[in-house]
Amino acid sequence: MAAFIKLLCVFFFLSLVSEGNCQCSLDNVSVVQSKSKLVVQQKPVWNVTINLDCPCTLTDLVLSSNGFQTVLPLDPTVIVQSGNQLQVTANGGTIAPHSNTAFAYAWDTSLSFNPVSGQPNCSG
């Protein structure tokens, strides 16, 4: 019985340790925008930076982009639009730990981008 309790304690401890290795979620993703001095077709260019504040990689990040429009073509090696969502494609769709990805668009006003899905990978 004592051996079983010790084994159970070891299992519980290891499960707590493994949970602590990856505390990453969409809460670790922030989107920051700034208006540049550039103008395309009489519309200001907005610079967007997607920041990942997490010790893990993040793949398949999708941002909501309701009403997104741009007269400046998006770079498909960085981000692609599909309906009301933007899919990050930079680096094969992977954002490195504590890094950022940037893109630009041109429209009359800044638009709101919110992370809606993504897969943290904390192995290794």
Automatic annotation (TrEMBL):
Q: What's the superkingdom here?
A: Eukaryota
Record's keyword terms, sorted: Signal
Q: Where is the signal peptide?
A: 1-22
Q: Which Pfam families would you find in this protein's record?
A: TPD1_C
Top-level taxonomy: Eukaryota, Viridiplantae, Streptophyta, Embryophyta, Tracheophyta
Cross-referenced InterPro entries, in alphabetical order?
A: TPD1 (IPR040361)
Query: Which protein, by its recorded name, is this?
Result: Uncharacterized protein
* One GO biological process term: cell fate determination
